[in-house]
Amino acid sequence: MGKWRRVALLAGVLLAPAGVSGCFNPFAMGFATPIPIPPWVTERMEEKYCHKNDFRTPIMPPIREGTRPVCEDPPGLAEVLRAMPHVVRGVPYFYEEFRDNISYTYERIKDAIDPPRFYPLVGPAQLHHCHWKCTVHYLETVESGYPFPVKCVRQRTEVIYIDKDHLHLYSVPGPAEQSISRDLIGY
């Protein structure tokens, strides 16, 4: 019995350090244990949190008597690239896809103002429709390095439609309208 006790004690002494180290116990570092996260998780989080206003409707001051606002804020390159489909995520050296020499043009396809109506959480307002057609030209490069090197470069054109609608508050002309304008834009 004494021999087996010594063997068990010796085995316990030899295996105890390995059991509490990171080799055999993945949670040995406690809450500081690194967790593997795919690289595209940060890209999706940036899309979600950094560009919140891409899909929000701004509320503008009332339209002044005798004027008609025009859509004068065309979409920028960053907004157009965010609206395009994502590049296919490949495996390095097996399949990779790139977009180079990006250029774009835009044209306004709709500029209309709806009659006033009541919007919840806003009140009486007019919806101003601003729709843009953006044509994006770029070079698509598809590369593969295994099992044999291949590189295919093609000129691509893609059409993106972007809606930049916004609301204009609506009020009956008079002191109430002046108060709203003063509060919103400062004059």
Q: What does it look like?
A:
With 187 residues, the protein is of the alpha+beta class. The protein has one domain (45-185). The protein is built from four helices and six strands. Strands 1, 2, 3, 4, 5 and 6 form a six-stranded mixed sheet that branches. β4 (123-144) and β5 (150-163) form a beta hairpin. It starts with a helix and ends with a helix. The mean pLDDT is 85.
Strand portion: 25-35%
Number of helices: 4
Low-confidence stretches: none
The number of distinct structural domains comes to 1
Order of helices and strands: HHEHEEEEEH
Whole-angstrom Rg? 30 Å
Terminal Cα separation, in Å?
97 Å
Extended strand count: 6
Helical percentage? 25-40%
Largest sheet: 6 strands, mixed
Mean pLDDT across every amino acid position: 85
Q: State the shape.
A: elongated
Q: Note the quaternary state here.
A: single chain
The class by helix and strand makeup works out as: alpha+beta
